[in-house]
Design a protein that fits this description.
222 residues, alpha/beta, globular
Length: 222
């Protein structure tokens, strides 16, 4: 199973449709693979603040129920449906001016294309040929705990987001998640920074706080 990226898109896709795209997000198996085509400075630093958000007990009970019922071998859809999607949808409810896209192709010219698991964009308003909006947050699942591959695909999607916005001064955020562990990163200009601290689903309010911070940072650009 391959790691997909959350910045995110696929199929017929409005004005972003481009033929003969040369680099798919899934072609990137590591950050180093991306650096071969796009010179990026790679560093580690804690930039996500300690931001705990209280969650309803019923929500936490649902997460614990899913964890208690998982088998030794589960499908990717099990983890996405019961352990990743609930956090994404709950964060979206707190930031309703944004649009959360799921499994939709994201393309930049003839350079980059892929279908992240999720990406976050501003809502398109009025008559427009750009139904997707300007993406600023990419999310990838790390299948079988393959964070190296997950970050390769997520970084490729983050670069696509940056280029679609045509502004290197905008910070693009990214996340790679497994069934139980989430990692966060940001791309500003040519600097890719991964947060040293990872977050576990067993501490859901701390994890959700980090995710809510990402949504909030993006909402500032809307």
């Amino acid at each position: 199973m391959k790691g997909d990226c959350i910045c995110l898109s696929y199929n017929k896709f409005d004005s972003f449709y481009i033929k003969d795209v040369t680099m798919k997000f899934s072609d990137s198996k590591s950050v180093e693979d991306v650096q071969k085509k796009y010179p990026i400075y790679n560093r580690f630093e804690n930039f996500v603040p300690n931001h705990r958000v209280e969650l309803p007990q019923l929500y936490q009970d649902d997460i614990q129920f899913a964890l208690s019922k998982q088998a030794d071998v589960e499908s990717e859809m099990f983890y996405r449906e019961y352990l990743i999607a609930p956090f994404m949808s709950e964060a979206w409810k707190r930031h309703r001016d944004l649009k959360l896209w799921v499994n939709r192709r994201l393309v930049y010219k003839d350079e980059l294309t892929g279908e992240p698991d999720y990406f976050l964009a501003n809502k398109s308003k009025g008559t427009t040929t750009n139904q997707v909006g300007n993406p600023l947050l990419a999310v990838a699942e790390a299948k079988q705990e393959k964070f190296t591959e997950g970050w390769g695909q997520c970084l490729a999607a983050m670069i696509a987001c940056q280029k679609i916005n045509a502004d290197e001064n905008i910070t693009i955020y990214g996340m790679v998640a497994t069934s139980e562990l989430w990692q966060f990163a940001k791309l500003h200009g040519d600097t890719f920074t991964r947060n040293i601290r990872a977050y576990t689903i067993h501490m859901p309010e701390q994890l959700f706080g980090a995710l809510d911070y990402m949504f909030g940072e993006y909402e500032k650009h809307v």
